[in-house]
Amino acid sequence: MCFIISFIFPKLFYVSKLLLLVFCTFTLLDIFILYLAKTGISATRQLPDKFSNGDENDIFLRMENYYTFPISVRIIDEIPEQFQVRDFSIEKKIKASSVIDLKYKLRPTERGEYIFGKLNVYVQSVLGLVARRFYFDNEAMVPTYPAFLQLKKYDLLAIGNNLTMYGIKKIRRIGHTMEFEQIKEYVIGDDLRTINWKATAKQRHLMVNQYQDEKSQPVYSVIDKGRMMKMPFNELSLLDYAINATLVMSNVVLKKQDKAGMFTFSKKVENTVIAEKRSSQMNLILESLYNVSTDFYESDYGRLYGHIKQTLKHRSLLLLYTNFETMDGLNRQLPYLKGISKSHLLVVVFFKNTELDELIHSEATTIQEAYDKVIAEKFSFEKRLIVNELKKYGIHSILTTPENLTINAINKYLEMKARGLV
Fold first, then answer.
1. Which of 404, 52, 412 is closest to 233 using CA atoms?
2. pTM (2 decimals)?
3. Backbone φ and ψ of 115, nearest 5°
Protein backbone atom coordinates (compact mmCIF):
# COMPACT_ATOMS: atom_id res chain seq x y z
CA MET A 1 0.00 0.00 0.00
CA CYS A 2 2.78 2.41 0.94
CA PHE A 3 4.55 1.46 -2.27
CA ILE A 4 1.48 2.40 -4.37
CA ILE A 5 1.09 5.79 -2.63
CA SER A 6 4.78 6.62 -2.99
CA PHE A 7 4.52 5.75 -6.70
CA ILE A 8 1.29 7.66 -7.57
CA PHE A 9 1.75 10.91 -5.61
CA PRO A 10 4.99 11.98 -7.35
CA LYS A 11 3.30 11.31 -10.69
CA LEU A 12 0.30 13.52 -9.74
CA PHE A 13 2.65 16.23 -8.56
CA TYR A 14 4.49 16.30 -11.88
CA VAL A 15 1.21 16.23 -13.82
CA SER A 16 -0.08 19.17 -11.74
CA LYS A 17 3.10 21.11 -12.40
CA LEU A 18 2.76 20.39 -16.09
CA LEU A 19 -0.87 21.54 -16.14
CA LEU A 20 0.04 24.67 -14.23
CA LEU A 21 2.81 25.39 -16.70
CA VAL A 22 0.41 24.90 -19.62
CA PHE A 23 -2.15 27.17 -17.93
CA CYS A 24 0.43 29.90 -17.31
CA THR A 25 1.67 29.57 -20.88
CA PHE A 26 -1.81 29.98 -22.34
CA THR A 27 -2.50 32.84 -19.94
CA LEU A 28 0.64 34.66 -21.03
CA LEU A 29 -0.29 33.95 -24.64
CA ASP A 30 -3.78 35.37 -24.01
CA ILE A 31 -2.29 38.47 -22.41
CA PHE A 32 0.14 38.85 -25.29
CA ILE A 33 -2.48 38.69 -28.06
CA LEU A 34 -4.89 41.00 -26.19
CA TYR A 35 -2.30 43.64 -25.24
CA LEU A 36 -0.16 43.45 -28.37
CA ALA A 37 -2.44 45.86 -30.19
CA LYS A 38 -2.40 49.36 -28.72
CA THR A 39 -6.01 49.94 -29.82
CA GLY A 40 -7.86 46.66 -29.92
CA ILE A 41 -11.37 48.06 -30.18
CA SER A 42 -13.26 51.33 -30.35
CA ALA A 43 -16.65 52.04 -28.84
CA THR A 44 -18.96 55.03 -29.04
CA ARG A 45 -22.15 55.87 -27.20
CA GLN A 46 -24.74 57.88 -29.15
CA LEU A 47 -27.09 59.80 -26.87
CA PRO A 48 -30.16 61.86 -27.84
CA ASP A 49 -30.05 65.62 -27.37
CA LYS A 50 -32.64 65.21 -24.61
CA PHE A 51 -34.66 62.48 -22.91
CA SER A 52 -38.45 62.31 -22.98
CA ASN A 53 -39.74 61.89 -19.43
CA GLY A 54 -41.78 58.75 -18.81
CA ASP A 55 -40.98 57.32 -22.27
CA GLU A 56 -38.56 54.65 -23.46
CA ASN A 57 -35.53 56.45 -24.92
CA ASP A 58 -33.03 54.71 -27.23
CA ILE A 59 -29.29 54.63 -26.46
CA PHE A 60 -27.10 53.44 -29.34
CA LEU A 61 -23.67 51.81 -29.03
CA ARG A 62 -21.22 51.08 -31.83
CA MET A 63 -18.37 48.61 -31.30
CA GLU A 64 -15.52 48.09 -33.80
CA ASN A 65 -13.13 45.13 -33.46
CA TYR A 66 -9.60 45.89 -34.70
CA TYR A 67 -8.28 42.46 -33.70
CA THR A 68 -7.72 39.86 -36.42
CA PHE A 69 -9.62 37.26 -34.40
CA PRO A 70 -13.14 37.09 -32.95
CA ILE A 71 -13.62 38.48 -29.45
CA SER A 72 -16.20 38.40 -26.67
CA VAL A 73 -17.09 41.71 -25.05
CA ARG A 74 -18.88 42.63 -21.84
CA ILE A 75 -20.14 46.20 -21.91
CA ILE A 76 -20.76 47.99 -18.62
CA ASP A 77 -22.17 51.44 -19.19
CA GLU A 78 -22.14 53.79 -16.20
CA ILE A 79 -25.70 55.01 -16.59
CA PRO A 80 -27.03 57.98 -14.54
CA GLU A 81 -27.65 57.44 -10.84
CA GLN A 82 -31.32 58.42 -11.17
CA PHE A 83 -32.04 55.00 -12.70
CA GLN A 84 -30.58 53.19 -9.67
CA VAL A 85 -29.25 50.33 -11.84
CA ARG A 86 -26.11 48.69 -10.48
CA ASP A 87 -25.93 45.51 -12.56
CA PHE A 88 -26.24 46.85 -16.11
CA SER A 89 -24.17 44.89 -18.66
CA ILE A 90 -24.39 43.64 -22.26
CA GLU A 91 -22.47 40.60 -23.51
CA LYS A 92 -21.78 40.11 -27.22
CA LYS A 93 -19.44 38.33 -29.63
CA ILE A 94 -17.79 40.32 -32.43
CA LYS A 95 -16.23 38.77 -35.50
CA ALA A 96 -12.69 39.61 -36.53
CA SER A 97 -12.22 43.12 -37.97
CA SER A 98 -15.95 43.90 -37.92
CA VAL A 99 -18.44 46.40 -36.51
CA ILE A 100 -21.66 45.82 -34.55
CA ASP A 101 -24.38 48.26 -33.49
CA LEU A 102 -26.26 47.78 -30.23
CA LYS A 103 -29.22 49.49 -28.62
CA TYR A 104 -30.73 49.62 -25.18
CA LYS A 105 -33.53 51.70 -23.66
CA LEU A 106 -33.84 53.93 -20.60
CA ARG A 107 -37.05 55.29 -19.08
CA PRO A 108 -36.47 58.39 -16.95
CA THR A 109 -39.15 59.22 -14.39
CA GLU A 110 -38.12 62.73 -13.39
CA ARG A 111 -37.02 65.84 -15.24
CA GLY A 112 -33.51 67.25 -14.85
CA GLU A 113 -29.92 66.51 -15.83
CA TYR A 114 -28.79 62.90 -16.30
CA ILE A 115 -25.02 62.35 -16.28
CA PHE A 116 -23.43 59.28 -17.89
CA GLY A 117 -20.04 58.03 -16.70
CA LYS A 118 -17.56 55.87 -18.55
CA LEU A 119 -18.42 53.29 -21.18
CA ASN A 120 -16.44 50.26 -19.99
CA VAL A 121 -15.72 47.37 -22.35
CA TYR A 122 -14.06 44.13 -21.18
CA VAL A 123 -12.57 42.13 -24.08
CA GLN A 124 -11.72 38.43 -24.13
CA SER A 125 -10.12 36.34 -26.86
CA VAL A 126 -11.25 32.83 -27.82
CA LEU A 127 -9.12 31.49 -24.96
CA GLY A 128 -11.21 33.42 -22.43
CA LEU A 129 -8.51 33.39 -19.73
CA VAL A 130 -7.88 37.16 -19.48
CA ALA A 131 -10.11 40.20 -19.96
CA ARG A 132 -8.67 43.52 -21.10
CA ARG A 133 -10.52 46.66 -20.08
CA PHE A 134 -11.12 49.62 -22.40
CA TYR A 135 -13.15 52.69 -21.46
CA PHE A 136 -14.62 55.43 -23.62
CA ASP A 137 -16.91 58.50 -23.56
CA ASN A 138 -16.09 59.72 -20.10
CA GLU A 139 -19.08 61.69 -18.78
CA ALA A 140 -21.91 63.06 -20.90
CA MET A 141 -25.00 64.96 -19.76
CA VAL A 142 -28.50 64.61 -21.20
CA PRO A 143 -31.36 66.83 -19.97
CA THR A 144 -34.74 65.17 -19.45
CA TYR A 145 -37.71 67.19 -20.73
CA PRO A 146 -41.47 66.56 -20.56
CA ALA A 147 -42.65 63.70 -22.78
CA PHE A 148 -42.03 65.28 -26.19
CA LEU A 149 -41.93 61.85 -27.86
CA GLN A 150 -45.68 61.69 -27.36
CA LEU A 151 -46.03 64.67 -29.70
CA LYS A 152 -45.12 62.46 -32.65
CA LYS A 153 -47.79 59.96 -31.61
CA TYR A 154 -50.58 62.53 -31.78
CA ASP A 155 -49.17 64.97 -34.35
CA LEU A 156 -50.32 63.51 -37.67
CA LEU A 157 -53.49 62.17 -36.08
CA ALA A 158 -54.47 65.64 -34.93
CA ILE A 159 -54.02 67.05 -38.43
CA GLY A 160 -56.12 64.35 -40.05
CA ASN A 161 -58.80 64.18 -37.32
CA ASN A 162 -57.87 60.52 -36.78
CA LEU A 163 -57.58 60.73 -33.00
CA THR A 164 -60.10 57.90 -32.66
CA MET A 165 -57.18 55.51 -33.30
CA TYR A 166 -56.10 56.18 -29.70
CA GLY A 167 -59.56 55.93 -28.18
CA ILE A 168 -60.43 59.58 -28.64
CA LYS A 169 -64.05 60.20 -29.48
CA LYS A 170 -65.00 61.41 -32.93
CA ILE A 171 -67.71 64.05 -32.58
CA ARG A 172 -69.69 65.54 -35.41
CA ARG A 173 -69.12 69.26 -35.73
CA ILE A 174 -72.25 71.25 -34.93
CA GLY A 175 -72.97 74.32 -37.05
CA HIS A 176 -70.62 76.13 -39.40
CA THR A 177 -67.47 77.21 -37.61
CA MET A 178 -65.06 76.73 -40.51
CA GLU A 179 -64.16 79.12 -43.32
CA PHE A 180 -62.39 78.52 -46.63
CA GLU A 181 -58.66 79.25 -46.59
CA GLN A 182 -57.06 77.89 -49.79
CA ILE A 183 -56.94 75.09 -52.38
CA LYS A 184 -53.97 72.79 -51.92
CA GLU A 185 -52.62 69.50 -53.23
CA TYR A 186 -54.03 66.39 -51.55
CA VAL A 187 -51.83 64.59 -49.02
CA ILE A 188 -52.55 61.40 -47.13
CA GLY A 189 -54.75 62.20 -44.14
CA ASP A 190 -56.82 64.94 -45.81
CA ASP A 191 -60.60 64.53 -45.64
CA LEU A 192 -61.77 63.04 -48.98
CA ARG A 193 -64.98 65.04 -48.68
CA THR A 194 -63.00 68.27 -49.24
CA ILE A 195 -61.74 67.26 -52.72
CA ASN A 196 -62.21 70.12 -55.21
CA TRP A 197 -63.10 68.28 -58.44
CA LYS A 198 -62.86 71.34 -60.71
CA ALA A 199 -59.36 72.15 -59.47
CA THR A 200 -58.46 68.45 -59.71
CA ALA A 201 -59.53 68.36 -63.39
CA LYS A 202 -57.43 71.44 -64.18
CA GLN A 203 -54.31 70.31 -62.33
CA ARG A 204 -54.72 66.61 -63.26
CA HIS A 205 -54.02 65.50 -59.70
CA LEU A 206 -56.11 65.59 -56.54
CA MET A 207 -56.70 69.02 -55.03
CA VAL A 208 -58.60 69.71 -51.81
CA ASN A 209 -60.19 72.71 -50.14
CA GLN A 210 -58.47 73.69 -46.91
CA TYR A 211 -60.52 75.25 -44.14
CA GLN A 212 -59.66 76.96 -40.89
CA ASP A 213 -61.60 77.91 -37.79
CA GLU A 214 -63.21 81.32 -38.03
CA LYS A 215 -61.57 82.50 -34.85
CA SER A 216 -58.58 81.25 -32.88
CA GLN A 217 -59.47 80.78 -29.24
CA PRO A 218 -57.00 80.98 -26.32
CA VAL A 219 -56.55 77.64 -24.54
CA TYR A 220 -54.56 77.64 -21.30
CA SER A 221 -53.22 74.65 -19.38
CA VAL A 222 -53.16 75.59 -15.68
CA ILE A 223 -51.01 73.25 -13.59
CA ASP A 224 -51.37 72.96 -9.83
CA LYS A 225 -47.88 72.24 -8.44
CA GLY A 226 -48.89 72.04 -4.79
CA ARG A 227 -48.11 69.12 -2.50
CA MET A 228 -51.15 67.07 -3.60
CA MET A 229 -49.60 66.74 -7.08
CA LYS A 230 -46.50 64.98 -5.74
CA MET A 231 -48.47 61.73 -5.36
CA PRO A 232 -46.71 58.98 -7.38
CA PHE A 233 -48.20 56.62 -9.95
CA ASN A 234 -46.14 54.13 -11.98
CA GLU A 235 -42.92 55.94 -10.94
CA LEU A 236 -44.16 59.34 -12.21
CA SER A 237 -45.78 62.00 -10.04
CA LEU A 238 -49.22 63.39 -10.85
CA LEU A 239 -47.43 66.66 -11.58
CA ASP A 240 -45.37 64.98 -14.30
CA TYR A 241 -48.49 63.44 -15.84
CA ALA A 242 -50.06 66.92 -15.93
CA ILE A 243 -46.89 68.39 -17.48
CA ASN A 244 -46.75 65.69 -20.17
CA ALA A 245 -50.45 66.15 -20.95
CA THR A 246 -49.96 69.93 -21.19
CA LEU A 247 -47.23 69.52 -23.78
CA VAL A 248 -49.31 67.20 -25.98
CA MET A 249 -52.48 69.25 -25.52
CA SER A 250 -50.68 72.45 -26.53
CA ASN A 251 -49.49 70.79 -29.72
CA VAL A 252 -53.00 69.59 -30.60
CA VAL A 253 -54.43 73.06 -29.83
CA LEU A 254 -51.97 74.71 -32.21
CA LYS A 255 -52.70 72.11 -34.91
CA LYS A 256 -56.37 73.02 -34.55
CA GLN A 257 -55.45 76.67 -35.18
CA ASP A 258 -56.22 77.81 -31.62
CA LYS A 259 -53.84 79.68 -29.31
CA ALA A 260 -51.97 77.61 -26.71
CA GLY A 261 -50.67 78.96 -23.42
CA MET A 262 -49.93 77.79 -19.88
CA PHE A 263 -49.01 78.75 -16.34
CA THR A 264 -48.45 77.02 -13.01
CA PHE A 265 -49.49 77.96 -9.50
CA SER A 266 -49.10 77.07 -5.84
CA LYS A 267 -48.16 79.84 -3.41
CA LYS A 268 -47.86 82.10 -6.46
CA VAL A 269 -48.43 81.99 -10.22
CA GLU A 270 -45.33 81.18 -12.28
CA ASN A 271 -44.03 79.80 -15.62
CA THR A 272 -46.47 81.91 -17.62
CA VAL A 273 -46.60 81.53 -21.40
CA ILE A 274 -49.20 83.82 -23.00
CA ALA A 275 -51.52 81.98 -25.41
CA GLU A 276 -50.32 82.57 -28.97
CA LYS A 277 -50.30 80.75 -32.31
CA ARG A 278 -46.72 81.54 -33.39
CA SER A 279 -44.27 78.95 -34.67
CA SER A 280 -42.01 79.21 -31.61
CA GLN A 281 -44.84 78.59 -29.14
CA MET A 282 -44.18 74.89 -28.60
CA ASN A 283 -40.53 75.54 -27.80
CA LEU A 284 -41.50 78.23 -25.28
CA ILE A 285 -43.94 75.86 -23.58
CA LEU A 286 -41.41 72.99 -23.55
CA GLU A 287 -38.72 75.16 -21.95
CA SER A 288 -41.18 76.52 -19.38
CA LEU A 289 -42.29 73.02 -18.38
CA TYR A 290 -38.72 71.75 -17.96
CA ASN A 291 -38.13 73.38 -14.57
CA VAL A 292 -41.60 73.00 -13.06
CA SER A 293 -41.50 71.23 -9.70
CA THR A 294 -43.74 71.00 -6.66
CA ASP A 295 -43.05 73.34 -3.73
CA PHE A 296 -44.94 71.16 -1.22
CA TYR A 297 -47.22 74.04 -0.17
CA GLU A 298 -51.00 74.06 -0.18
CA SER A 299 -52.10 75.71 -3.42
CA ASP A 300 -53.50 79.23 -3.16
CA TYR A 301 -56.64 79.30 -5.32
CA GLY A 302 -57.38 82.85 -4.23
CA ARG A 303 -54.14 84.02 -5.81
CA LEU A 304 -54.96 81.97 -8.93
CA TYR A 305 -58.37 83.64 -9.20
CA GLY A 306 -56.84 87.11 -8.81
CA HIS A 307 -54.19 86.39 -11.47
CA ILE A 308 -56.74 85.13 -14.00
CA LYS A 309 -59.07 88.06 -13.39
CA GLN A 310 -56.24 90.57 -13.80
CA THR A 311 -54.36 89.11 -16.77
CA LEU A 312 -56.84 87.14 -18.94
CA LYS A 313 -59.09 89.76 -20.51
CA HIS A 314 -60.55 87.50 -23.23
CA ARG A 315 -62.74 84.48 -22.58
CA SER A 316 -60.50 81.41 -22.66
CA LEU A 317 -60.65 77.65 -22.20
CA LEU A 318 -58.82 76.81 -18.97
CA LEU A 319 -57.75 73.22 -18.34
CA LEU A 320 -56.97 73.13 -14.63
CA TYR A 321 -54.83 70.09 -13.70
CA THR A 322 -55.21 69.52 -9.98
CA ASN A 323 -56.33 66.88 -7.49
CA PHE A 324 -59.22 66.86 -5.02
CA GLU A 325 -59.48 63.88 -2.69
CA THR A 326 -62.50 64.94 -0.61
CA MET A 327 -65.55 67.19 -0.74
CA ASP A 328 -64.07 69.31 2.05
CA GLY A 329 -61.03 69.93 -0.12
CA LEU A 330 -63.26 71.04 -3.01
CA ASN A 331 -65.56 73.21 -0.87
CA ARG A 332 -62.61 75.29 0.36
CA GLN A 333 -61.74 76.20 -3.25
CA LEU A 334 -65.21 76.16 -4.82
CA PRO A 335 -65.87 79.94 -4.48
CA TYR A 336 -62.73 80.68 -6.50
CA LEU A 337 -63.59 78.06 -9.15
CA LYS A 338 -67.09 79.53 -9.49
CA GLY A 339 -65.57 83.00 -9.88
CA ILE A 340 -63.23 81.82 -12.63
CA SER A 341 -66.01 79.99 -14.49
CA LYS A 342 -68.09 83.18 -14.74
CA SER A 343 -65.60 84.71 -17.18
CA HIS A 344 -63.96 81.64 -18.70
CA LEU A 345 -64.73 78.10 -19.80
CA LEU A 346 -63.24 76.09 -16.94
CA VAL A 347 -62.44 72.36 -17.00
CA VAL A 348 -61.19 70.86 -13.72
CA VAL A 349 -59.02 67.80 -14.37
CA PHE A 350 -58.37 65.54 -11.38
CA PHE A 351 -57.36 61.95 -10.76
CA LYS A 352 -58.84 58.62 -9.80
CA ASN A 353 -56.97 56.66 -7.15
CA THR A 354 -56.33 53.40 -9.00
CA GLU A 355 -55.12 51.65 -5.84
CA LEU A 356 -58.52 52.28 -4.26
CA ASP A 357 -60.24 50.85 -7.33
CA GLU A 358 -58.18 47.66 -7.02
CA LEU A 359 -59.10 47.43 -3.33
CA ILE A 360 -62.80 47.97 -4.06
CA HIS A 361 -62.91 45.15 -6.62
CA SER A 362 -60.92 42.72 -4.46
CA GLU A 363 -62.61 40.11 -2.28
CA ALA A 364 -62.55 40.79 1.47
CA THR A 365 -61.77 37.70 3.56
CA THR A 366 -61.14 39.31 6.96
CA ILE A 367 -62.80 42.04 9.04
CA GLN A 368 -59.84 44.37 8.43
CA GLU A 369 -60.04 43.85 4.65
CA ALA A 370 -63.80 44.50 4.74
CA TYR A 371 -63.18 47.71 6.72
CA ASP A 372 -60.49 48.84 4.23
CA LYS A 373 -62.85 48.12 1.34
CA VAL A 374 -65.63 50.26 2.87
CA ILE A 375 -63.22 53.17 3.39
CA ALA A 376 -61.99 52.84 -0.20
CA GLU A 377 -65.58 52.91 -1.51
CA LYS A 378 -66.23 56.05 0.55
CA PHE A 379 -63.28 57.88 -0.99
CA SER A 380 -64.23 56.70 -4.50
CA PHE A 381 -67.81 57.90 -3.92
CA GLU A 382 -66.51 61.32 -2.85
CA LYS A 383 -64.66 61.65 -6.16
CA ARG A 384 -67.95 61.16 -8.00
CA LEU A 385 -69.64 63.66 -5.69
CA ILE A 386 -66.98 66.21 -6.65
CA VAL A 387 -67.86 65.75 -10.34
CA ASN A 388 -71.56 66.30 -9.61
CA GLU A 389 -70.86 69.33 -7.41
CA LEU A 390 -68.80 70.99 -10.15
CA LYS A 391 -71.48 70.21 -12.72
CA LYS A 392 -74.09 71.89 -10.52
CA TYR A 393 -72.30 75.22 -11.01
CA GLY A 394 -71.65 74.76 -14.74
CA ILE A 395 -68.01 73.78 -14.27
CA HIS A 396 -66.82 70.99 -16.57
CA SER A 397 -64.63 68.25 -15.14
CA ILE A 398 -62.53 65.22 -16.10
CA LEU A 399 -62.03 62.42 -13.58
CA THR A 400 -59.33 60.21 -15.06
CA THR A 401 -56.63 57.68 -14.29
CA PRO A 402 -53.11 59.13 -14.71
CA GLU A 403 -52.25 56.92 -17.69
CA ASN A 404 -55.37 58.09 -19.59
CA LEU A 405 -54.98 61.77 -18.71
CA THR A 406 -53.68 62.92 -22.10
CA ILE A 407 -56.33 61.10 -24.13
CA ASN A 408 -59.19 62.23 -21.91
CA ALA A 409 -58.02 65.86 -21.91
CA ILE A 410 -57.82 65.91 -25.72
CA ASN A 411 -61.25 64.25 -25.83
CA LYS A 412 -62.74 67.05 -23.78
CA TYR A 413 -61.12 69.76 -25.87
CA LEU A 414 -62.36 68.24 -29.16
CA GLU A 415 -65.82 67.77 -27.70
CA MET A 416 -66.05 71.41 -26.65
CA LYS A 417 -64.69 72.57 -29.99
CA ALA A 418 -67.22 70.45 -31.88
CA ARG A 419 -70.05 71.89 -29.83
CA GLY A 420 -68.91 75.43 -30.46
CA LEU A 421 -68.11 76.07 -26.78
CA VAL A 422 -64.51 77.01 -27.59
1. 404
2. 0.77
3. -110, 125
